[in-house]
C-alpha cells in the first residue's frame, strides 16, 4: 500500500480560471542546479502543472535566452511557456536582466494573452518589478513570491560573495508593498519581510514548497552506511557513463576504479556552485570526515552560478580538495535532471547542506524523501525542513559539520532513525498541499469570499506571528 497521504483534488476558485506566471530571469524549462536554475524553477513548474490539473490554464512568461527557442512551448496540458524578447537572445546575468525589464513589460503588454488572466503571479524580485507595472494595466490582482530576499543574502554573505545592490533592496520593498498578496515559503521569511520592510501579516500567506512524492522516495533496497552497496547502485568513485560532460572533470582527479563492497561512506552535495550554497564548506567538511573515515567519498552535483565563477567552481573546488589531500575521494558532475537526481540521493549516505542562507531547503527535503539524512547549517530555510531527518549545525565551521556527519555515519541505529524520520516528514510535504494553499491565496487576491476562508485563517496566524 502506498504510505503517502492522499488528498482529494481541490477545485479552483470560480473566479480563477486563467493565471499569468512571471519568471523573467529563469524558465521552468531550465535544469535546476546550473546557471540561475534552482528551487524556483521546480516550484514554478510543479505549481503550474498542478493548477492545470484543477482546471486552471497557466501562461508562464520568461525571457528568451536562445534564438532557437519557440515563441510558445506547452509543457503540460493547460500550461504554456511563452518566450518573451527582452534584451539579447542569450543567457545573461541577473544584473543584466534588470536592464531589460522595461522591454519585457512592453512585450507582455502586446502579447495576445495580455489582460485575459484572473491573477498575475510573479516569482523573484525581477518578475515583481514587471508585475507591479503590468497589474494596473491589465486590471489584474498580483501575487508575489520572492524565493530569496536581498536583505537576507546581504546579512549572510560568504567571504567570497558580493552583496546585492541597493536597486534590488528598493525594488523588493516596493513590490512587497504593492502586491495584493505575498506568498512566503516559511514563517521565518514572513518575519523577515515584517522586520525589513514593515509588511503586515494580513497580506502574507505561508505556502511551503512541496516534494514530488511519486519520484522522490527511498529505494526498496535502501541500506544504512554499515551495509554493502546495493545491486545496481553506482559505486563511489565511478561516475555513471555519459553523465559527466566531457572535459568537466580535470584529468587524473576523479579516482579510477571501483570501491570494494563494505564500509565506504558516501557524502553528497547538490546545488549551484556559488559561495552562498557553501560547496567549499562541503569539501572542507568532507576532509574532516575523511581523517576519521578514510574510505569516505564526496560527490558534488551542480553547475557554476553567479559569483561562483572563479570562486567555488569545479576547478577551485578540486584545487581545494588537493590542498586538503582528499582529491582522490572527490568527484564533481554537472547538474542532472530530476530523474537522475533521485539516484544521486539514493546513492548517498548523507547530504551536506552548509548554505549561508536558504529561503527554503528544497534539496534537503528531496534528500529526506529518498531516505537520505541531512547535515545542514542552522539557517531559517533549512531549519524549517530538517528536523529529526538529520542534524542542524550552528554556524559554518567544517569541524562542527564533520562531527555531526561522523555521528550519523558511524551509528547505524541513529542513521536509520534519521532516515525514517526524514521520509515521514517529507510525506507530509506534497505539492498538492502547496497548490491548495496557492489557490486559497489567489481567492483572497481576487476577493472570492466563497473560497478564501482558509486563506483568511492563515492571515490571522501570520499576523499574530509577525506581530
Please compute the radius of gyration using only Cα atoms: 22 Å
SS summary, helix count: 16
For the record, the count of structural domains works out to 2
CATH architecture assignment of the largest domain: 3-Layer(aba) Sandwich
Question: Your description of this structure?
Answer:
This protein has 467 residues and is of the alpha/beta class. The chain has 2 domains: 18-210 and 431-466, Glycogen Phosphorylase B (Rossmann fold), CATH 3.40.50.2000; 266-426, Glycogen Phosphorylase B (Rossmann fold, 3-Layer(aba) Sandwich), CATH 3.40.50. It contains 16 helices and 14 strands. It has helices at residues 39-53, 94-97, 101-109, 125-138, 150-155, 166-178, 187-197, 279-292, 314-323, 338-347, 362-369, 380-383, 398-409, 412-426, 431-446, 453-466, and strands at 18-22, 57-63, 72-76, 79-84, 119-123, 142-145, 181-184, 204-206, 266-270, 297-301, 330-333, 350-353, 374-377, 390-393. The strands form 2 sheets. Strands 3-4-2-1-5-6-7-8 form an 8-stranded mixed sheet, sandwiched between helices. Strands 11-10-9-12-13-14 form a 6-stranded parallel sheet, sandwiched between helices. A hairpin with a 2-residue loop joins strand 3 and strand 4 (79-84). Helix 3 packs parallel to helix 4 (125-138) and helix 15 packs across helix 16. It is globular. The chain starts with 17 loop residues before the first strand and ends with a helix.
Question: Secondary-structure blueprint of this entry?
Answer:
Blueprint: E1 18-22, H1 39-53, E2 57-63, E3 72-76, E4 79-84, H2 94-97, H3 101-109, E5 119-123, H4 125-138, E6 142-145, H5 150-155, H6 166-178, E7 181-184, H7 187-197, E8 204-206, E9 266-270, H8 279-292, E10 297-301, H9 314-323, E11 330-333, H10 338-347, E12 350-353, H11 362-369, E13 374-377, H12 380-383, E14 390-393, H13 398-409, H14 412-426, H15 431-446, H16 453-466
Parallel strand pairs: 1-2, 1-5, 2-4, 5-6, 6-7, 7-8, 9-10, 9-12, 10-11, 12-13, 13-14
Antiparallel strand pairs: 3-4
Helix pairs in contact: 1-15, 3-4, 4-6, 8-13, 11-14, 15-16
Amino acid at each position: 500500500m502506498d504510505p503517502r497521504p492522499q488528498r482529494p483534488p481541490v477545485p479552483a476558485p470560480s473566479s480563477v480560471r486563467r493565471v499569468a506566471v512571471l519568471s523573467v530571469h529563469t524558465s521552468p524549462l531550465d535544469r535546476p542546479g546550473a546557471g540561475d536554475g534552482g528551487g524556483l524553477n521546480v516550484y514554478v513548474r510543479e505549481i503550474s502543472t498542478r493548477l492545470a490539473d484543477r482546471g486552471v490554464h497557466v501562461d508562464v512568461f520568461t525571457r528568451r535566452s536562445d534564438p532557437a527557442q519557440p515563441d510558445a512551448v506547452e509543457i503540460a496540458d493547460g500550461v504554456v511557456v511563452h518566450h518573451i524578447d527582452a534584451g539579447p537572445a542569450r543567457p545573461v546575468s541577473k544584473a543584466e536582466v534588470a536592464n531589460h525589464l522595461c522591454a519585457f513589460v512592453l512585450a507582455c503588454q502586446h502579447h495576445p494573452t495580455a489582460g485575459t488572466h484572473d491573477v498575475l503571479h510573479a516569482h523573484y524580485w525581477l518578475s515583481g518589478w514587471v508585475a507591479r507595472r503590468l497589474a494596473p494595466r491589465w486590471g489584474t490582482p498580483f501575487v508575489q513570491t520572492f524565493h530569496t530576499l536581498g536583505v537576507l543574502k546581504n546579512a549572510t554573505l560568504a567571504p567570497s560573495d558580493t552583496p546585492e545592490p541597493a536597486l534590488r533592496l528598493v525594488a523588493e520593498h516596493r513590490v512587497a508593498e504593492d502586491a495584493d498578496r505575498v506568498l512566503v515559503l516559511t514563517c521565518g521569511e514572513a518575519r523577515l519581510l515584517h522586520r525589513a520592510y514593515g509588511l503586515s501579516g494580513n497580506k502574507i500567506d505561508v505556502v511551503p514548497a512541496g516534494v514530488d512524492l511519486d519520484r522522490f522516495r527511498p529505494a526498496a533496497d535502501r541500506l544504512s552506511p554499515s551495509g554493502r552497496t546495493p545491486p545496481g547502485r553506482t559505486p563511489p568513485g565511478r561516475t555513471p557513463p555519459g553523465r559527466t560532460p566531457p572535459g568537466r572533470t580535470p584529468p587524473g582527479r576523479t579516482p579510477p576504479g571501483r570501491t570494494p563492497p563494505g564500509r565506504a561512506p558516501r557524502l553528497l552535495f547538490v546545488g549551484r556552485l556559488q559561495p552562498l550554497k557553501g560547496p567549499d564548506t562541503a569539501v572542507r567538511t568532507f576532509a574532516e570526515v575523511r581523517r576519521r573515515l578514510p574510505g569516505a567519498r564526496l560527490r558534488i552535483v551542480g553547475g557554476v552560478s553567479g559569483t561562483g565563477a572563479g570562486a567555488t567552481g569545479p576547478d577551485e573546488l578540486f584545487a581545494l580538495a588537493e590542498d586538503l589531500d582528499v582529491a582522490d575521494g572527490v568527484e564533481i558532475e554537472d547538474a542532472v535532471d530530476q530523474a537522475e537526481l533521485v539516484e544521486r540521493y539514493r546513492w548517498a549516505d548523507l547530504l551536506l547542506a552548509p548554505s549561508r542562507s536558504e529561503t527554503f531547503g528544497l534539496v534537503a527535503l528531496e534528500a529526506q524523501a529518498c531516505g537520505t539524512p541531512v547535515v545542514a547549517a542552522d539557517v531559517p530555510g533549512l531549519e524549517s525542513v530538517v528536523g529529526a531527518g538529520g542534524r542542524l549545525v550552528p554556524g559554518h565551521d567544517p569541524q562542527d559539520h564533520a562531527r555531526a556527519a561522523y555521528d550519523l555515519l558511524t551509528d547505524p541505529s541513529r542513521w536509520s532513525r534519521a532516515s525514517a524520520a526524514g521520509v515521514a516528514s517529507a510525506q507530509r510535504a506534497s505539492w498538492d498541499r502547496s497548490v491548495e494553499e496557492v489557490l486559497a491565496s489567489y481567492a483572497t487576491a481576487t476577493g472570492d469570499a466563497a473560497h478564501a476562508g482558509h486563506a483568511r485563517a492563515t492571515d490571522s496566524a501570520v499576523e499574530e506571528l509577525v506581530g
